[in-house]
Amino acid sequence: MSGAGATRRTRAAGAGASAATAIDVGVEGIRVAFGDTVALDEVTLDVPAGQVTAVVGGDGAGKSTLLRVLARRITPSAGAVRTLSKAEIGYQPSTSGVWNSLSVAENIAFVGQSFRMSASRVRRRSDELLQRAGLTAARDRLGWDLSGGMRQKLGFVLAILHEPRLVLLDEPSTGVDPVSRVELWRLIAATAAADRAVLMATTYLDEAARAASVTALDRGAVIAAGTADRIVAALPGRIALDPGDTPSWNSWRRGRVRHEWIAAASDDAAVRTPAVTPTPAEPPAPRAVTPDLEDALIAYTLARDPGERSGPAHEREPGPSATRHDGPVAGAVVAAGRGVTRRFGSQLAVDDVSLDVSTGEIVGLIGANGAGKTTFLRALIGLDAPDAGTVELFGRAPDAASRERLGYVPQGLGLYRTISVDENAEFFARVYRMPRPHLPASLAEVERETVGSIGLGRQRQLAFTLALAHEPELLVLDEPTSGVDPLSRARLWDTIHAQAEAGRGVIVTTHYMQEAEQCTRLALLSQGRLLGLGSAAELTAGVTAVVVTTPEWQRAFTALGEAGLPTMLAGRTVRVAGVAPDRVREALGGIPAAVDEVAPTLEEAMVLRES
């Protein structure tokens, strides 16, 4: 199914783009296959100058293939491609494009030579871009000594060093913390404001919503395209609050409530008909909700192939049902750190952090790359010993016995990629001296395949299944949903909430602000220290934000940035956090614009606290 103008072509350049710089870039009806696997199927997309265009989708959706087609690295078997010469294209691969064995300055010099830039031009562009990226002091640091955010910003600098007219960015912010992501987005927005065409692949929907237009891919096909608002407005059917509390194929968790997709009137009865004979009692009528981009893309995904997505609920869950157990009493502390400090040589990774996790709650760790989240997590569960302070698991010092009472999904998932799904399950069973875990249908059908061949979504499902199989009392998740599509992410969070409601404690690290908002409490770490602790509402309390709406957004973005204000592109509007409206109007000068106060985002609150 396509929506919101998925097949319509838009040739107009972005607002403010001049005829001299207007370019014609896009694809129409392209098809790309690798053997029997169709990577792109009848995909149409336009990339106008003077704006950011986003393409979203989970791992394997076809985002990278689409960018590589436009970068002239792949030739489709069908369809038309309109792109520029390689000299006019800047391309940042998903690996950042940074040579780790070279210094920042050497990376820049190498790229400059590759594009035959003069030494003076390289020096001018290098000075300008490193200053804008906040990397001037890092000129002599090797690539592998940079943080994740710094590496991605350097990759972007390398991609635009030669001043390309078309900029292609393959998930430049995946795995990057929200603070660095904001800094990177400012660089991207400034590039679009200079009348460049920017196409960016991303899995972050809050990030995609800032783009002027969005194209969503699912298994190689376009399921929706247009502005974020138009995609939401044109979603098939409607979104309502689910009146029940039992997971179903067409519902998902959003914080303390469940959202439910209800098909259009012609299909409504089929969608809502349960698999068993209904009771005579009439179910309560669902209440409509205002959907966001995440809700809308889940609806498009379900509507595309409801038959495949409508199996029994337990088969789609990442792990077993969350039955209550005879563990700690409700509200009991299951993990505690007091004054935890951890050093690596002269580097202070965690500095005097205190945090508890109790049964029935979800505690989220948020903060920049290198803030100390993973280091604190490993110390809390006894994988690393703190240099100072104390940690307790279930009321005592962590040991092998107490760690058997927790389920752990590390960033790398903790799976053996070269052996089969079934062999991973057998190995887990032997470690925990228990019967082989039951695998849901979606994993059972690939149980003979190696883990490395089954795709990221199923790998994460397997990691969750194994982590929950022994019914742990504490669930520890380190960036559990990075790279998965919105529906798979929602399913995994269904499981996380179910575990907390069953009386287990949950602690999770995440870079997704929409996920962070689902946590009971959030702990904001920066440079190893705890900057804030509380709910999302408590962390954003007292923060102000304004949105600037103007047909001359490029001029407004540039003027506000030159005034030193913390600007953020949001479609064709500009957001400014922590600044009074009058100060924003003053910085705009004579640019005609509406300046309105709006509710701040959690991301904006994080950036202001860390600045």
From TrEMBL:
Q: Name one Pfam family in it.
A: ABC_tran
The chain positions of domain ABC transporter read 25-244, 335-552
Keyword annotations for this protein, in alphabetical order, are: ATP-binding, Nucleotide-binding
Q: For bias kind Basic and acidic residues, which ranges apply? A: 305-327
Q: For the region Disordered, what residue ranges are annotated?
A: 269-289, 304-327
One molecular function GO term is: ATP binding
Q: Which residues form a coiled coil?
A: none
Highest taxon of source: Bacteria
Where does the signal sequence lie?
none
The record, for CDD domains, names:
ABC_DR_subfamily_A
Xref: PANTHER family: ABC TRANSPORTER G FAMILY MEMBER 20 ISOFORM X1 (PTHR43038:SF3), ATP-BINDING CASSETTE, SUB-FAMILY H, MEMBER 1 (PTHR43038)
- What is the name attached to this protein's record? ABC-2 type transport system ATP-binding protein
